[in-house]
Amino acid sequence: MSELNTVEAEFHRVDRRPLRTAAVVGTGLIGTSVGLALSARGVTTYLLDRDPEVAREAAALGAGRAARPPHPVDLAVLAMPPSAIPSALIEYQRSGLAHYFTDVGSVKLPPQRTAATAGADLRGYVGGHPMAGAERSGPSAARADLFHGRTWVLTPSARTDPAAVARASELIRLCGAELLLMDAAEHDRTVALTSHAPHLLASLIAGRLADTDPARLRLAGAGLRDTTRIALGDPDLWTDILRSNAAPVAEVLREVADELAVAVAALDWLAGPDPAQQLRGERELHHLLSLGVAGRERLPAAAAQPAGR
Question: Out of 1.10.3660.10, 1.10.3470.10, 3.40.50.720, 3.90.1150.10, which CATH number does the structure's domain 188-297 have?
Answer without folding.
Answer: 1.10.3660.10
